[in-house]
Design a protein that fits this description.
The structure holds two protein chains of two kinds. By secondary structure, chain A is of the alpha+beta class. Chain A contains four helices and five strands; from the N terminus they run βααααββββ. Chain A is elongated, with a radius of gyration of 15 Å. Classes of the chains: A alpha+beta, B alpha+beta.
Chain lengths: 123, 143
């Protein structure tokens, strides 16, 4: 049995990327240096991967009605495409048999940026 | 972490699998947790650390273990196992090690393992990041 639940949306800005760099200490030039990022294979600034993952975490904790994921939860994430300043990231959850949360975080043009499979305790 | 350089010059060849680095002490503040609990730019006060805190702790551990963040590195995969709930305003200890390194499809992939423990030495979160390293075998780090 599976069920679909409402998702969440996040708008990624350069200010948000800069704030994440301050918070995490990750000042990789791909995230904060426009000139270096432009010369990279990405052709411009990309966000830290976990910024796109934040939409999943917010959707999952909202779905479960908790602040923290419960002990025994395991989360597997594949980063499939870069997120850039100005992108809107949407994350829709699907629950399979009450034991797994599946999600794809998608940006405004339909590109999947993050795929997630979370196994809940008791699975 | 202010004494840790911003960027690392550790090359793929210099990475040694299995050698434990740390533990590195970090603090999970209520303000940081709030910033990571809500929508981007919309903090929400919480009493327990939201899951988004842990990728941040992984990055802090990576920077301290590698003497900076490898410039040009790209995150490909990430896994997290949640073992216990962590209240905000807690101290944690992060141990870091290289779990695996291999070249696939001509790209150097490095798996970095993390073990985050509470001040009481209780395992809170374990996990790993698979990173496309900015240098491959036989390559020098960028100046």
């Amino acid at each position: 049995m599976s069920a679909d639940f409402g998702g969440v949306r996040d708008v990624v800005t350069q200010d948000a990327i800069d704030a994440y760099a301050e918070l995490s200490g990750d000042f990789n030039p791909l995230h904060v240096d426009p000139r270096a990022a432009a010369a990279s294979e990405f052709g411009g600034i990309i966000a830290h991967g976990p910024i796109a993952l934040q939409a999943f975490f917010r959707a999952a904790t909202g779905r479960l009605g908790v602040e923290a994921l419960p002990a025994g939860t395991a989360v597997k994430v594949t980063y499939r495409a870069p997120t850039r300043p100005g992108d809107t990231i949407g994350c829709e959850l699907r629950q399979e048999d009450g034991t797994e949360l599946l999600a794809e975080c998608v940006k405004q043009d339909g590109t999947v940026v993050v795929s997630v499979r979370a196994t809940l305790p008791g699975a | 972490m202010s004494d840790t350089p911003v960027l690392s010059n550790v090359t793929y060849d210099e990475l040694v699998t299995g050698a434990r680095m740390g533990p590195y002490a970090e603090h999970v503040s209520a303000a940081a947790a709030a910033q990571l609990a809500g929508a981007i730019g919309e903090p929400v006060a919480v009493s327990d650390a939201p899951p988004a805190v842990f990728p941040v702790l992984f990055l802090k551990g990576l920077r301290r273990a590698m003497g900076g963040i490898p410039p040009g590195s790209v995150l490909a995969k990430q896994e997290l196992e949640f073992h216990a709930v962590l209240p905000v305003d807690s101290d944690v200890a992060i141990t870091v090690w290289v779990g695996d390194k291999q070249v696939r499809r001509e790209r150097p992939f490095v798996t970095i393992e993390f073990d985050v423990r509470s001040a009481q030495d209780k395992q809170v979160v374990t996990g790993r990041k698979v990173i496309v390293w900015p240098t491959g075998p036989g390559q020098e780090a960028a100046a």
